[in-house]
Amino acid sequence: MFFLVKNKFLMKGGFPKYGSIIKYLKTNNKLYATKSNVTKNIVFIDGVRTPFLHSGTSYKNLMAYDLARHSLVALQKKIKFPKEIVEYIVYGTVIQEVKTSNIAREAALTAGYSDRIPAHTVTMACISSNQALTTGMGLIACGVYDVIIAGGVEFLSDIPIRHSRHMRTLMLQANKAKTIGEKLTLFTSIRAAHFVPDLPAVAEFSSNETMGHSSDRLAAAFGISRKEQDEYALRSHTLAAKAQQQGYLTDIVPYKIPNVNEVINKDNGIQVSTKEKLAKLKPAFVKPYGTVTAANSSFLTDGASAALIMTEEKALQLGLTPKAYLRNFIYVSQDPIDQLLLGPSYAIPQVLQKAKLNVKDIGVWEIHEAFAGQILANLKALDSDLFAQKYLGRSLKVGIPDLNKWNAWGGSLSIGHPFAATGIRLASHTANRLIKEDQQFGLIAACAAGGQGVGMIMERYPGAKV
């Protein structure tokens, strides 16, 4: 440091002159004085996903990274981009496989991407791949990278189950024990209760309440009947079945199970029932009077998804036609007990305000369906002046969207909900529907554990094709 000072400034008495320093800083700080323009158009090239399957079915002998790897391989094959253009990979996951803690990195390596490409994994409950997508947007907007893959994976067919806390403590102590006597002492302290496994929590840590109970209470608070919930669930399955039959779900990439002849090429949770059959199901959470059942709830699902995003400039250089612009996004958070599932009601008005749009400007709505009751509660909240005034700080209600434009290809109730893969599925469906339905703007919203939520705006790219 002294050498640098000695050579740059006139010295007096062993110390640089103050005036010389100021003059130097004024004339030689061009690097930091240059104005940085990080405003860029970020585009969604395309997205893919494995078929979403009920947990415990055809994927049951795999690992999460198998599905994540396939989504990465399939994305490249579908778009036909050179792998070397990818500069960063970020994936979401919720129930983490301890062997592949940074699953983004493990999947990228096994998918044939360069080991020079950094990768990290994020978690934000049901909006984890939304977070992966917006994390990628942030890296691009800041000028760090131009091309990023964002994705998500969830594998609930095999989840980590721990020994009990007492048993884990004894095992750690045994590992440190130096003599046979010390080990025998620990062994004799084992009790039968120590062998009871510690299962992953299905309840909110803050409230110790399951999301199903929250949905039941929310439905009761908004006066939503069992009949309304069943009708909405039937709507979701009916629309998803129609989209499946008409070949609209083009984000699906078939998956060949290793060492099995079976090729999986469609979601297996879509099942159109009847109102009469749905009405016969017993409550799943609040018994015997609850209104949330297995049929009007999303089910445990395995699956992975991935999307390629980049600057518009880079896409044009590569000769790629994007499907949509990624415009605005917002994350919200509220009371995780009474308002656990109301994320969309908070996120939708905020993201619309950021984008200077209103409800009528949105031609495509893709909203995560955790429960039918949750969806209907959010719709009622959006249509409530009281809710707007008390919780949103607005004088008037947000308003109900055109339901003909709402989850027109079904949603998580029917397609399935691999926690960390749903966000990219929502984005892919939004982009494809914008093109198919000749709309300009699409809005994505979802609730998440912890009382959080997300809202995102996408805009159709000129000349885009499905």
Automatic annotation (TrEMBL):
Stretches assigned to the Thiolase C-terminal domain: 320-460
EC number: 2.3.1.16
Example GO biological process: fatty acid beta-oxidation
Sequence ranges assigned to domain Thiolase N-terminal in this UniProt record: 42-313
Domain of life (superkingdom): Eukaryota
InterPro entries (alphabetical): Thiolase, Thiolase-like, Thiolase_acyl_enz_int_AS, Thiolase_AS, Thiolase_C, Thiolase_CS, Thiolase_N
Pathway: Lipid metabolism; fatty acid beta-oxidation
Enzyme class: transferase
Keyword line: Acyltransferase, Cytoplasm, Fatty acid metabolism, Lipid metabolism, Mitochondrion, Transferase
Pfam families hit by this protein: Thiolase_C, Thiolase_N
Subcellular location: Mitochondrion
GO cellular component, one term: mitochondrion
Entry GO MF terms: acetyl-CoA C-acyltransferase activity
Primary site of residence: mitochondrion
Gene3D superfamilies reported in the protein's UniProt record: 3.40.47.10
Family label: Belongs to the thiolase-like superfamily. Thiolase family.
Name the UniProt record assigns to this protein: acetyl-CoA C-acyltransferase
Organism listed in the record: Apis mellifera
